[in-house]
Amino acid sequence: MGGVKIWSAIEVAEEVGESCNSDIPSSSLTVDISLPLPQMKPRIIELCKDMFKKWSQLDESHFSIETVSGGITNLLLKVSVREYSGDDTVTVRLYGPSTEYVIDRERELKAIRYLSAAGFGAKLLGVFGNGMVQSFINARTLSPSDMRNPKLAAEIARQLCKFHQVEIPGSREPQLWNDILKFLEKASALEFDDSEKQRKYETISFKEVQDAIFELKDLTDLLDAPVVFAHNDLLSGNLMLNDDEEKLYFIDFEYGSYSYRGYDIGNHFNEYAGFDCDYSLYPDKDAQYHFFRHYLQPEKPQEVSVEDLEALYVETNSFMLASHLYWALWALIQAKMSPIDFDYLSYFFLRYNEYKTQKDKYFLLARSYVAGSKTG
């Protein structure tokens, strides 16, 4: 993830192909994500024809392209192709500019193969210079309020339980603290051209942030949380629902890694706050227990013991604090690197202050729980 070597999507695609004994088409073409859609269109068509031989002879009139969604770190396009033998639809995902400073694409591409084989997300169809082509999912993106719907919350919990059982080959070492410390290293060495931004940036005590990270790591280490392959970014925009079939999809595994079970759940609960970061919407204990029951025993949610609920409650809310530190530091790097017009610097303070607001309550909870389980 260093700022020096930018990984090559093509090399990664070839490696992924070899490791999975399959042929993923690749192209060295790149698409300028800053172009307006009409100007991007010919390049997308050229890319599709370069990658998929069956389309190489079709002229432009056979292709129609529309925007599905523009996330903070990527742009999703729906490409519909009218063929003589019938219609075909794919999704082209363009990586956001400078995202290689915060996202390990190699890790992502390797995981996608195994997750898609287990029935998660879209199928990987091809890789190019700054993005990938995937199968099209016919569903709508959830809103933060959808996630609070008890029926949907139960389904998200059941799916997450399955997701956490997927085995991804390679090291199973949890990456959470490694990633946070990498972010800290980058975030603490920035310089802004804008003097107002620089002034705000200089009010941050990175010594204080570093102490917070190590203090929280020491606390969560006592909880002995299970390590799973985690999604790590389960916000409403990465959940899709086909209302007719009542089928839920997890998408976008770009932050996926081996991590702690409680972190994935706590990070998801933080996303109840939505884009306005209204943390009064964070789920209360009853809503969390409802989620935990369907996560721990998808078939028999009512049979989950009070002890198991309590343990997962402590674990989740301790790691929820780590989610604030992770995205706070992420935002600082984005404030410097991202061309997207978003006040990332203020977002740092928002998340870091929420960490400080919640810290005492959940540190106390975790410490008394650990003390109790030692004597119990």
Automatic annotation (TrEMBL):
InterPro entries: Kinase-like_dom_sf. Its EC number is 2.7.1.82. Pathway: Phospholipid metabolism; phosphatidylethanolamine biosynthesis; phosphatidylethanolamine from ethanolamine: step 1/3. The keyword Ribosomal protein does not apply. Belongs to the choline/ethanolamine kinase family. One of its GO terms (biological process) is phosphatidylethanolamine biosynthetic process. GO terms for cellular component: cytoplasm. Pfam families: Choline_kinase (PF01633). One of its GO terms (molecular function) is ethanolamine kinase activity. This is ethanolamine kinase. It comes from Nelumbo nucifera (Sacred lotus). The keyword Zinc does not apply. Keywords: Kinase, Transferase.
